[in-house]
Description:
disordered C terminus; 479 residues; 3-stranded antiparallel beta sheet; mainly alpha; single chain
Amino acid sequence: MRLFKPKYIDREGQKKRTQKWYLNFNTPDGIRHKLPLFTDKRASEGVKNTIAECISYKVAGLVFGVELQRKLDMLPARILKKLSAFGLLETQRIEGSKALIEHVQDWQNSLVAAGCTKKHLQAVVPRVERVVRECSFRMISDIDIVKAERFLLQLRDTGTIGKSTFNGYVRSVRQFGKWLVDVGRTGRNPFGMLKKTTFTRADQKRPARTLSINEVRTLISTTANAPAWHGISGHERSLIYLLCNESGMRANETRLLLVSDFNFNRATVTIRPAIAKNRKEAILPIKRMTAELIKQHCKGKLPNVRVFNVPAKPHLMIKHDLEAAKIPYKTDEGTAHFHAQRHNFATALSISTANVKTAQDLLRHSDPRLTLGVYTHGVAENQRTAIENLPNLTLSSAETQKAIKTGTDDQSVFDICLDEQCELKQTNLDCSGLNTPKTENGKTALSSSKTSIMSEISDYPRCDSNAQPLAPEANALSN
């Protein structure tokens, strides 16, 4: 491997050297190549060292390290194309020299090919484009995680976005960074160290309010006899609420259900990958009585016909029916919107005998913390029942009286120390618990006389466990 400036003859016949430095090197297959670099020698030497590392990794059969990946990301596109043609780099490495916004477009195309919905694309792609644009990231090598984090924190702290949206930004850019690694355009996820912020129910703009069992029953029974709303009969709306509260299905999943998705003999409903949020098929059990009601509703419909007519804004439908049933739609606890029925289902599972794993599977959550921390709500009646079912920790009346008798002769300390007027009574006990000799007028050191207690002290003023008379010198000093 040699770095040099080749000579050439100009039009006047004079020998001159080129302005650029050239590199001669042999690839692992034994072929010799000549590569033009830069006019600056130091920059050319840096490329020379990088190519030498690539050849070493290729000879050893190792995967390029992180540092080497970073050096390759800094090289111009023309050099990367040459190295790819020489067999030192993969074809995907050439894409690393493209503008970052072009990578975002390629990522969007891959999401479309993977079957992501239009709604998902409209949520994640603009977020990544905004971070790239506002942070002035032109190339992959320009990505600075500190700058991106500072930008997102500024949006959150100024109130431009909430905590939930902040976490959405973090998920989007991390997903984009992971895609760059998967397709071989970078060696590491440039956004991999971004952290989500803590998000609780108090931070939700529209926290879900769960309905009680009686409220759900009232909603379904009242809606079943209600008139049509925007072309949807009351009976059909009641079946929608019944199915969502007993299966935890989402609005879009319910909207796209076909007659063929139901197996009425086994009382199950199949969530096809095309309509599932996680793009995974799921077979959910439903109550046999509910399956029978839906079967009667599907009479005369073809297998490829939708079962229910769910509006584009289902929260307006359930708000109308809740008001008709005289159930508050919004309280201090939250809002009983359409998706809150999924919370009703999770809370009902926690009340029943279902364990955490069963609830997670039925709700189709990837993390049980989501099932317990977000969708499962506490019920005040169950909390009271749980507290009342705790073991009895109190003592019986006889044991209680025995426990407070700590004085001498099995007497209560309250009987010894206090009278009915809460005054100190006469006692022969001093501060150490020993019997104190009476004074000449029959009063003790803790007499209840109106005179000062100090005036009643005789030759025994110390209240300790080894009371002794004072020496004559001490008496003289005390007097």
